[in-house]
Amino acid sequence: MNTTPIPETTVEFHLAERPEGWPTPDTFRRVERTLPELAEGEVRVLNRFVSVDPYMRGRMNLGESYVAPFELDAALTGGAVGHVVASNAPELPVGTAVSHDQGWRSVAQGPATTFRRAAEIPGVPLSTSLGILGMTGLTAFVGLRDIAEIKPGDVVFISGAAGAVGTAAGQIARLMGASRVVGSAGTDAKVAMLTERYGYDAAFNYNDAAPVAEQLAEVAPDGIDVYFDNVGGEHLEAAIGALHRGGRIALCGASSEYNVTTPKVGPRNMSRLITQSLRLRGFTIGEHVAVAPEFAKAMGEWFAAGKIAYDETVVEGIENTPQAFIDLLAGKNVGKMVVRVDA
Amino acid sequence: MNTTPIPETTVEFHLAERPEGWPTPDTFRRVERTLPELAEGEVRVLNRFVSVDPYMRGRMNLGESYVAPFELDAALTGGAVGHVVASNAPELPVGTAVSHDQGWRSVAQGPATTFRRAAEIPGVPLSTSLGILGMTGLTAFVGLRDIAEIKPGDVVFISGAAGAVGTAAGQIARLMGASRVVGSAGTDAKVAMLTERYGYDAAFNYNDAAPVAEQLAEVAPDGIDVYFDNVGGEHLEAAIGALHRGGRIALCGASSEYNVTTPKVGPRNMSRLITQSLRLRGFTIGEHVAVAPEFAKAMGEWFAAGKIAYDETVVEGIENTPQAFIDLLAGKNVGKMVVRVDA
Question: Cα separation of B251 and B268, whole Å?
């Protein structure tokens, strides 16, 4: 009997079929397979946390997205963090914490060059390197600073504000000098968290009967300068209508559209871009990873100074990854949703 | 009898009522009035040409636009060019050619500071300072260079391409290094002019039965990098759908919406801004007049080198200004439409 804890197999999830509308458990197929022997330059990594993110829904469709669609009958990929448990690469010895893109599985293996060292901060869970200290925080940082070009004094509106990116963005906007930060979320409990925990000045529940434009006008009666869009649809039209001259929108996500199979309705007030000199810019974080060191420095200082609150919704057990993803799309998370591999 | 040619009266057009949908002759009221005596520092200007422009339609509505709405029962304003015929300001002696904002009238009067010297180029009509050498050309220049951030090799799509801005933009895009320039216009005759006279590689008639997206795909089968929007609506959605990753749209006008009273439909593919990192930016030329000297230098060189074709649709007689404006909105112009004051 092998007494070392080196796992010989991995549990991984494959895309069994492309979902139409909402994904279901049938969208996924659980596969357990024996790992090949470690080649020269490779490492084997026991994942501690794997990430589920809204953008993954887009990759489950055929057709263009910002990265290639997931392949059918192959392991899904995504953010993950773990520890090296076997190494044929001197630069990543056993015990090193690494983040990488082989999520949706319990054990990862591949060339050391495809793994990045992850910081282990005493008292801070490793999962934060997938969230507030990782891609999620970076997304909020880049969206506000480089895409929306936030300026001190701006009134900032963030939709889907209780999600991973939204909770980060509200606080970062404030730290970058926003004069007022308002947000929307999908439940009253989330709305309460925005003002009580994340420093939002005001927030509203977009599932209330009142139109988004009306609710936005209540929390930002003098209009807005910046909109950080995680929702799309009705939110986008409302924000275009509320922007001051020279206002800017960073389009980061469109959660209202991910699982919709009925015809969409576009913003009917696009001519306001002309009359008010508005700018709309979409982005995906993959094109902005060069900002990571700058972000790490800024966020590291804010984080160490206790200026950043964060929440994680931790789902226990790799077996529950598909359901975690389905729950994420249904908005059952607050802050970053991750799966702890060893429940 | 006074033997000097100094006019004592002006014919001007007031806004009689705010149009719903298309303006009609009843929208306007002709007023003839005697001019007050010239005050210190003032000049009187006999207009030679007055401009009619699509943006004026927006100012006839109440509600926000990029400039204040036109007032009811007051003279309309707009671009004009003429000669000083009486002067109490030494810096603008009698005979000086000036451009200014007191259009929609035969004679203008006011402080010399509100008039700008206009270049008189031998063999070139003064009306060009309202068009290709003036705000129209500047709008195309700024829209391509500063708003759409055109790069050498870009494939550029321009809608409403036979209009004043569109005919300028197609040529300027090429001079700025576009690899392919395609356009849309509202009649077959205009479409033919685009390729025969204005250097467009291909063009289509947006009043044909085929959807704009289909027609665009035919003239730009490999997609586009830049879209210069003068039309809005269906064109905008088609362009968003055809843009390459990192593509840019300059929103300059929305002629398809100016006189529409039915509910608008917005672009349903806004999430493509995210997946393809697209940028949309609206603008009005009033915020970019600082670029005028740079534009004048560049356009002056192109123009002198015979690289710029232009057309003007000249309507004869100040009395016909309202009809000229109505015809402009109906697309009866090719290139810049102006009214010659003295028919």
Answer: 17
Give the closest of B265, B274, B287 to A253, CB-based.
B274
Range of the domain at A155: 137-286
Pairing of strands B97-100, B80-87: antiparallel
Please enumerate residues of A whose Cβ is less than 8 A from a Cβ of B: 58, 64-66, 232, 236-237, 245, 251-254, 257, 263-284, 287
Residue A253 lies inside a defined structural domain of this protein: yes
Do B199 and B107 have their domain in common?
no
Q: Where are the alpha helices (DSSP H) in chain A?
A: 55-59, 135-142, 164-175, 188-196, 212-219, 234-242, 272-275, 292-304, 321-329
User: What pLDDT does residue B255 have?
Assistant: 85
- Whether residue A255 sits in one domain with residue A178: yes
Q: Which residues pair with A72 in a beta bridge?
A: A15
Does pLDDT of B259 surpass 80? no
Span of A109-118, B18-27, B253-262 with lowest mean pLDDT:
B253-262
CA distance A228 to A251: 6
Can you give the pLDDT at residue B343?
A: 65
Q: A94-132: buried (b, 16+ CB within 10 Å) or exposed (e) per residue?
A: eebbbbbebbbbbbbbbebeebeebeeeeeebbbbbbbb
Report the distance separating Cα A284 and Cα B152, nearest Å.
Answer: 25
- Provide the number of structural domains found in chain A: 2
Tell me, yes or no, whether A300 lies in a domain: no
User: What per-residue confidence (pLDDT) applies to A38?
Assistant: 96
